[in-house]
Amino acid sequence: MALERPPENEASPSRRSLIGLTRDELAAELIGFGERPQAARMRARQLWHWIYHHGAKTFEPMSSIARPMRDALAAAYSLDRPVIAREQRSIDGTRKWLLRFDDGQEAETVYIPEEDRGAVCISSQVGCALTCKFCHTGTQRLVRNLGAREIVSQFLVARDSYGEWPSPSGERLLSNIVMMGMGEPLFNFDNVAKALTIIMDSEGISISRRRITLSTAGVVPLMERCGEELNVNLAVSLHAVTDELRDEIVPINRKYPIAQLIEACRRYPGASNARRITFEYVMLKGVNDSPADAKALVKLIAGIPAKINLIPFNPWPGAPYECSTDEAIARFAGIVNRAGYSSPVRTPRGRDILAACGQLKSASQRAPRRNSVGERAADAPAGT
């Protein structure tokens, strides 16, 4: 299956943002700004601490940096967040932000609270190329990849909203990150890896890799690299146990069929009984929820340290499916449990604000391509 290649560049503000730069890039930027190399490394560490530990939005509160330097930095650089175009709150406490980036494109970020912790669901792309049939995001054409700055900034916005600065050393409201928002993270691996490396840095935001889960629909060639370079928890959007059905509802299966995907899961670095792979399985009435499907599922993943998240289908306007009945879900879960696999049924959160799994979507559209004389390219999407 041919998948379109998204534009790689994120929008550039008039003043360059320092958010999303690695430590080395930040030091290099300061050298270009006129600092000597040794001083630049020291200054970069100071800035890192203020940006990612204290959550500074401007250079003004950076008291460890002399006033003339702060003024000079403020004239040349920015620490701006994306604009919150819309914020919605669910009756269950879930919170969703529609964030607008410098080029006007938008993506959604969700905070899902639990009793003693909470997860921030972060997007990796504007739109998505996967067109999974049960997913609202899949009805939106892929617009572009998000840059590392835009990915990190989603977590900063969530932290700002809850005032959770400086970075707590103990219990946190925003304790976990799930790369399960809009887009396929492994189709934007370099930017996602850069952003998560910044988020995991112990002198800044300091979220442990054990509290980060990356979800993929099955980009097999990059799964092993993800484990080796990031070593975060892996979630696999499986949703079907035969190639025939998965080809239909998760079209990337036509390129990387189930046998290849399961083999990549067996090889995933760090997978163990203590760090199980999560298989995500959306429950679709009369489609994939039979006892035979459950038995085939446990046979398929036999020997893999895993748990299965059963996800009641979350409807959206025009959705082609219905959610399985409670009885069918309970029967399915019972078969999986008796086979020795944990199979929690995910409680839908934020359905009333379209913030639940598979419901995210923005109105962003991909700009039409233009030919050398500025006319619309023949393959540009209509209506954009």
Structural class: alpha/beta
Q: What pattern of helices and strands is seen along the backbone? A: EHHHEEEEEEEHEHEHEHHEHEH
Strand content: 15-25%
The name of the CATH architecture of the largest domain is Alpha-Beta Barrel
Query: How would you name the CATH homologous superfamily of the largest domain?
Result: Aldolase class I
Low-confidence stretches: 1-5, 370-384
What is the CATH fold-level name of the largest domain? TIM Barrel
Number of helices: 10
Distance between the terminal alpha carbons, to the nearest Å? 24 Å
Total DSSP E strands: 13
Largest sheet composition: 9 strands, mixed
Number of domains: 2
Strand order of the largest sheet: 3-4-5-6-9-10-11-12-13
Rounded radius of gyration (Å): 22 Å
Shape estimate: elongated
Mean of pLDDT: 91
Instruction: Tell me the name of the CATH class of the largest domain.
Output: Alpha Beta
Helix share of residues? 25-40%
Written description of the protein model:
The chain is an alpha/beta fold and 384 residues long. It has 2 domains: 17-78, DNA polymerase, domain 1, CATH 1.10.150; 83-353, TIM Barrel (Alpha-Beta Barrel). The chain has 10 helices and 13 strands. Helix 4 (148-162) crosses helix 5 (189-200).
Sum this structure up briefly:
With 384 residues, the protein is an alpha/beta fold. It is built from 10 helices and 13 strands.
Keywords for this entry:
384 residues, alpha/beta, DNA polymerase, domain 1, TIM Barrel, 2 domains, two-stranded parallel sheet, 10 helices, 16% strand, disordered N terminus, disordered C terminus
